[in-house]
Design goal:
Blueprint: H1 2-6, H2 17-27, E1 33-36, E2 42-46, E3 55-61, E4 66-72, E5 78-83, E6 95-98, E7 103-109, H3 117-121, E8 129-132, H4 138-142, E9 150-153, E10 158-160, E11 164-167, H5 170-182, E12 190-196, H6 204-213, E13 217-225, E14 245-247, H7 258-270, E15 275-277, H8 287-290, E16 298-306, E17 314-317, H9 318-334
Parallel strand pairs: 3-12, 3-13, 13-16, 14-15
Antiparallel strand pairs: 1-2, 2-12, 4-5, 4-9, 6-7, 6-9, 7-8, 10-11, 11-17, 14-16
């Protein structure tokens, strides 16, 4: 299963090298050519079976949220900035790996018994946190780490419960894993499997891919918010774990092609694939820049609900993962001949 291997790799936005190398090696046997652009996007091209001259772009981003070293203190601790949207409250005491060597570290904060009563009432700020790598002093730390080194979460892929798994970087290594599996099958249209960079910091890589490929249609495979948790108001529940693939109609960056969204939903019902519509309009993904690129590209998204997204311990249901993969596969085989003009 590609997913369990992909989430182990460090790939904070701007440093997707390890993920890209893994994907390139495994997708090469199934595609005619592979291109890597100046930003690091990987595009793998596969010829279609019906020679219709149309191109589908299947998109998933390789990057994950994380941290970057901004300063080294005299005591040898690492101050950092966040890369992507992270709630500082999830950071304290988390294990991390620093730099290309994967130096182990842990995120710390001033001890609770030293906090003032007012400090205890407030969520910590990033500037109050640091990474402890066990260095004796600044010189010792600088011999192992440099300002600008990336810091990735350390979190194992662990199956638990009724078909659930927890891991870091499920957003969006699950999409990368699905694309790797789909690359092994035929498609009526020519396909570009686009593995993008820097989605978490502004959909940057997808902009280049969309302009370069200029596909007739794009489908984004993504991890999305799941807030089916205690004390959450019903209106705030975007998706529910175990209820299937999630189809988006609108979010903070995109109004999705309604015809494709409806066809995906109907196809799922026809084949008894669990499916749900995303109920909230918050967030966004690479579709936000793809659909307004190259004169406008018809775009839709199929997502997998993920609890605790953008943290070291996101949780998904393998049932939802399989539903998203099977729905995408069937849509490629059964619906791509339709006219979406």
């Amino acid at each position: 299963m590609y997913l369990s291997e992909l989430v182990k790799l460090a790939g904070v936005s701007g440093n997707e090298n390890a993920v890209r190398s893994f994907i390139k090696e495994r997708i090469a046997p199934f595609c005619e050519r592979i291109e890597i652009d100046s930003m690091g996007n990987l595009m793998a091209f596969k010829k279609g079976t019906n020679n219709c001259g149309k191109t589908l772009m299947l998109c998933a981003h390789m990057d994950e949220v994380g941290l970057i070293v901004s300063r080294i203190t005299e005591e040898g601790f690492l101050k950092f900035k966040t890369v992507g949207g992270i709630d500082p409250r999830v950071l304290i005491s988390k294990r991390v790996s620093v730099g290309a060597a994967g130096l182990p570290g842990v995120i710390g904060r001033k001890a609770i018994h030293l906090l003032t009563p007012e400090e205890r009432k407030k969520a910590p700020k990033v500037k109050e946190l640091y990474v402890d790598i066990g260095a004796k002093d600044k010189a010792d730390a600088e011999s192992k780490v440099a300002v600008g080194d990336y810091i990735a979460f350390e979190s194992a892929f662990v199956p638990f419960g009724d078909g659930l798994v927890k891991a870091k970087a499920l957003d969006d290594r699950l999409g990368c894993a699905i694309l790797l599996e789909l690359a092994q099958e035929s498609c009526p249209w020519d396909v570009c499997f686009a593995f993008t960079v820097q989605e978490e910091v502004g959909l940057r890589g997808a902009r280049l891919c969309a302009r370069r490929i200029k596909p007739d249609m794009a489908l984004v495979i993504e991890g999305t918010t799941c807030s089916d948790l205690p004390e959450t108001e019903e209106r705030a529940v975007s998706t529910r774990l175990g209820k299937g693939a999630a189809i988006s109609l609108i979010d903070g960056a995109t109004s999705y092609n309604r015809k494709i969204a409806q066809q995906l939903y109907q196809l799922a019902a026809k084949h008894d694939i669990p499916v749900q519509f995303k109920q909230t309009a918050t967030g966004g993904n690479d579709a936000g820049i793809i659909h307004v690129s190259a004169g406008g590209i018809v775009t839709a998204a199929v997502s997998v609900p993920a609890r605790y997204i953008h943290s070291p311990v996101s949780v998904i249901s393998l049932k939802d993962y399989q539903a998203a993969k099977e729905l995408t596969r069937l849509w490629i085989q059964e619906v791509l001949h339709a006219d979406f003009a």
